[in-house]
Amino acid sequence: MAVSGVWCHVPVMPSTSPAPARARRAAVPVTAAQAALFDLAPPPGYVLVPGATAPSAPPVLDAAQAAVAAHRDGPLLVLAGPGTGKTTTLVESVASLVEDPERPLDPASVLVLTFSRRAADELRSRTTARLGRPTGAPVAWTFHSFAYALVRAHAPAEGEPLRLLSAPEQEVVVAELLRGSQEGEGSVRWPDRLAAALSTRGMADEVRAVLARARELGLEPPDLQRAARAAGREDWAAVAEFQAEYLDVLDSSLAVDYAELVHRAGLLAEQPAVRAALRERYRAVLVDEYQDTDPAQERLLRALAGDGRHLVAVGDPDQSIYAFRGADVSGILEFPTRFPQHDGTPAPVRTLAVSRRAGERLLAASRSVASRVPVRALPRDAVRAHRALAPGSAEPGEVRVLTFPTAAAEAGAVADLLRRAHLEDGTPWGRMAVLVRSGPRSVPLLRRVLGAAGVPVEVAGDELPLAQEPAVAPLLLALRVAAGMGADGGRASTDQVRTLLLSPLCSAEPGALRSLARELRAQQRTAGLAPASSDELLRTAVEHPEELALLEDRLAAPVRRLGRLLERARQSLADGGTGEQALWALWSGTAWGRRLERAARAGGPAGRSADRDLDAVCALFEAAARLEQRPGVRGARLLLEELEAQRIPGDTLAERAVRGEAVRVLTAHRSKGLEWDVVAVVGVQEGSWPDLRRRGSLLEPDRLGVDGLVEPPSPSDQLAEERRLLYVAVTRARRLLVVTAVASGDDDGERPSRFLEELGVPVEPQGRRARRPLTAAGLVAELRRVAVDPDEPEGLRRAARARLARLAAATDAAGLPLVPAAHPSRWWGLVATSDPGRPLLAEGAPVALSGSTLQRLGDCPLAWFLEHEAAAVSARTTALGFGSIVHVLADEVARGTLPADPAVLDARIDAVWSELAFEARWQSAQQRAEASAAVRRFLDWHALTAQRGRRLLGSEERFEVQVVLPDGPVRLRGSADRLELDGDGRLHVVDFKTGRSAPGPGEVARHPQLGAYQLAVEHGAFADLPGAPPAGSPPGGAELVHLRLESAGSVKVQSQAPLQPADDGGPSWAEELVADAAGAVRAERFAPTPGEQCSRCSFRRACPAQPEGRQVVE
C-alpha cells in the first residue's frame, strides 16, 4: 500500500514451518537468519507513489520545542499540555534526526507510535511534507497496526492472514462460549453463584474485562490460575479455564483480539533475535500520547527501545482518561525510573510551556481543574512548569457556566448558542462542537433538538450498535421475516408488518393504511365474512398481495411492495443464497437507496441525515460480508443472530471524515486531540460526571495483579480520572467554552456536578426558554407577534408586516416559496371557519343520541362533535379492552353460555389477554389480577339476584326508540348491559362500570346515561322482550355496578331513583336533558366546556379552551 508519497511496505518475515496454535500465542522460536529477513527490500508489485516534493519550511519553535527536537540519544519524557504543539515537536524531532549534519538517520529507522489512525495519518503526511521526499516506509504507526505487522511477519508464509476481531465480534464470541458453558458444553467449571448469570450481557462484559486485563499483564492461562489461587478467587480460576478455551477458538478461526494482538507482539519482541533485529532497524522511537499506554504496550516499548536507547515519550498525565481500556497513568508518571538512562539515572523530563490554542481566560479555567488532579512521582518543578502554561494567543477567550431547569431547555439553549455563533459571529459550523460524557444517554436528544433548530450535526463514530441504527433496523427486520423468523411462531407479527410498512422500505402513510384497512373490511362484509382487525387484514394482504388487485394503487402500493420484497428475499435464501445476498435483494428492490442518494447530493440537513443512513447501510453490508467469511456463519439465521448479539458500538479505528460543514457531537473521550473555536460541554451532572460507579464489580478485573490481588482504584482515583476527562473536554476550545448542566427545582431532581465550581467562573442560572431561536420559523413567529401586538409602536408593526410580505414573496429557482410560513394563508388563526354548505342534520330529521354520547355531549359539546361527527377518534386503549372482556364474560354468564365458575372464566380471560397491549409487563400482570377480581365481584353480585328481589330479564340488549319532543324527534339507541324485573313488575336497567372511580351521590341522581336508559324504558324500548312491561309503564330505576370497586365488603352499587314528572307536571329532568342536547345538535352549538374531563381528553391540541389548542385554531 502507499502512504503519503512514500514507498510503503509491511515488513514480512516468513516462517520455515507452521507453528502449533498454542506456540503462536507464546514465544515463537525465531532463528537469527529469519530475524535478518525482517528488513526485506520491497517485493515485486509494490508501487512507487509519485515523487519527491520540495520540503516545507521549518516552523518556528520555541525554546522548549527546540530542546526536544535537538535530543539525540537516550530516553526523554516530554510533558505536553493541550495545544502546546506536540505534533509539530514530534515532526521536527523526526526531521532533526534525519537531517542531522553529523549522524543523519534513514527515515525508515525512525519509528513513531501513536494511538489512533487519524493521528498516525497526520504524523505521516506532515513528516513527508516536512522532509520533502519519500521516507521508504511508514514513519508513524498505531500501536495495533505495528503489532499486527510484527505478528503477521512471523506467521506461516502459506497461511491465511490473521483476522482482527472488532469489539462487537469479540463480544459475540465470548457470549456464545458462555452460553455453551451454561448448557454444559466445554470444560469450564464456573462457581454455582455465577452459573445463572452466564447468559447475561453483564457477565460477558465482565469476562471480557478480565481477559483484557490478563493480557495487559502478560498472563497466560496457567499464570492466571496461579494468581487466582494466590487470591483465593474461584471465579478467576474459572476465567483462566475460559481463557484457554477462548484462545483455542480464536486460533481455530485465525482470529485475534486487540489485547491478544499486542500481547503476542510483545512476546515476539522480547525474543533475543527479534529484539536485536528490531533495535538494529529502529534507531529512534518516539511515542505520542504516552499517558494512554497499558502494561502490554509498555513491555513492547521496552523490547524496542529499553536499556537507555533513544526513546522520546510525549504525553500529559492530566489527560490520562482511558483507564477503562486498560491505560495506566503510572506509566507516564514513573517513566523516568522505568526507562532510565545508560548509567541508571532517571530519564530527564522536559516541558512544553506555551499554549497556542487557548487564551488567558480559557487557560485559567482549565488550570483550575487540573490543579486538583494529583500527580505523584514526577519532579515537582516539572509538574509546576507543565501546568503553568503561558497563553500564545492574544485573545483571552470566554468561559461561561450555565444551568437550566430541564434537559430540553439545556439542549434548546445550546442550539441557540450555536446558531448565534454562526449567524452573528460568523463562526463556521465545522469549527464548533458539543461534547458529552455519555453518547447513548445524551446524543439522541441533542441530535434531535439541534437538527430541529437548523444546526447541521455530525455525530462522531458509531454511537449505536449496528443493528440499532435507524437505517439498518428495517433491513434486518425484513430479513428476519423473509427467513421465517417472525415473532408470531415464525410468521411476521402484526406489529412487525406495520413497522415494515411504515419504514423507508415501503414508505406507507398511516392514514393510507387506515383507509386500506377500511376497504379490506368492506370487502369482507360484502363476502359475508366477519371482519378481522385492521392489523390482521394488513398482515394477510402482505402475505397475499395478489388479493389487492381490485384496490386502487394509491392505497395498495406499499403493501404490494413489501410483499414483493419479502418474496425476493425468500427466493434468494431458498436458492442457497447467503444472508448478505438476501439483504441485497431487499435493498436493491426499493427506491430507498436512490432517495438517499438524491438527498445526499442535495446537501443540507436532509443530506447529512442521508449520509448517515448510507454509511450505516454500507457498514451493514461490510459486516455481513465479513461474517459470511467466518467458518460456520452462513445463511440469514446465523447472520441475524451475530449482528443482533452485538450490543456494543463498532470499533472506530478509521473514524469517517466530517462531510461539509457541520457541528460535531461527540463524547469527551472521542474529542481528545481535536480543537474547535466554540465548544459546549453539555450535561455535567452530579452522578454522571463524575461517574464514580465501580466498573466490573462482579469479577473485579481491576483487582487482578500479576501475583494475585491488588487494591482496586479508590474513589479518589476514580474522581481524578473523571476530573481529567473534564479537563480534556474544557481544553478543546480556542475561543468560547460553555459548560452546561441541569439544576432541577425538585428535591430529588438533577443536580449540577461539583466540577462546575472548579472552573473558577460564576454559575449563571437560566430560565426555561431561550431567546427567540435564530431560525426562519422563529423569525416568522416574532414578526407575526409584533405585527398584531397593539402595544407595539405602529411604525414597528408596519415594518414587521413589510418584512413578512418580503419573506412570503421570496422563492427559489424552481419558483417555490422559501418561507411559506410567512404567508397569511398558512396562519391557522386567520383561516376562515369551515362550512360544508349544508346543516349537520337535515330539517325534521331525528337527532340520534345514546346514553354514553348524551353524557359526552353534556360534558363537552366540542369533544362530542370531534368524536362522533368528525370521526377523530383515538386508538382503543387497554382500559377499553379490559372493560370489553369483563362485559363479555358477564353477558355469557347471564345468558347461561358459561357457568358461573371462576376457574372457567379465568381460563377465558387468559385466552384473550395477550391481545391487549401494555406498556410494561408488570402492568399486564396487575391488570390481569384486577380482571379476575372484577369477575369474582360480578359472580357474587349475580348470585344474589333473587335475594335482591329481582329476576333477570335480559343481558346486552340493544334498543332503538323514538322520543317525540316539542322541538323535534330524538332517536335514543344503545345497549343495556343488564335488565331486571322487581317484584312489582317494574323494569330496572343495570350498567356495569369497570373504571377506577365512581361519581358522587349527587351526580348519580341525575346521571345522564342512566336517565337516558329510564327514558327509553318509558317509551317501550324493551317492550318486545318476553315478560317485559308494556310501553308507557314507569321504570323501576337504574343503577351503576362498579366491578372494580367495593363497598362494605361487596361490589359497589349506586342507584338512581325512578323517573318522575316535574313538580309542575312538566317533563322529567331526563326529558329536559335530552331536549337540550338535541337542541345543541340542531343549532350546531359545539363550544368547548372546560372541566375535570379535560385532563383525559384526546382533543386538547384542537381545543381553543386549552393552551396547546389555542395556538393552532386562533
UniProtKB/TrEMBL annotation:
CDD domains, A to Z: DEXQc_UvrD
Domain UvrD-like helicase ATP-binding: 59-359
Pfam families in UniProt: PDDEXK_1, UvrD-helicase, UvrD_C
Protein's UniProt keywords contain Repeat: no
GO CC aspect terms: cytosol; DNA helicase complex
PANTHER family listed in its UniProt record: DNA 3'-5' HELICASE, UVRD / RECB / PCRA DNA HELICASE FAMILY MEMBER
The protein, known as: DNA 3'-5' helicase
Species this chain originates from: Motilibacter rhizosphaerae
Top-level taxonomy: Bacteria, Bacillati, Actinomycetota, Actinomycetes, Motilibacterales
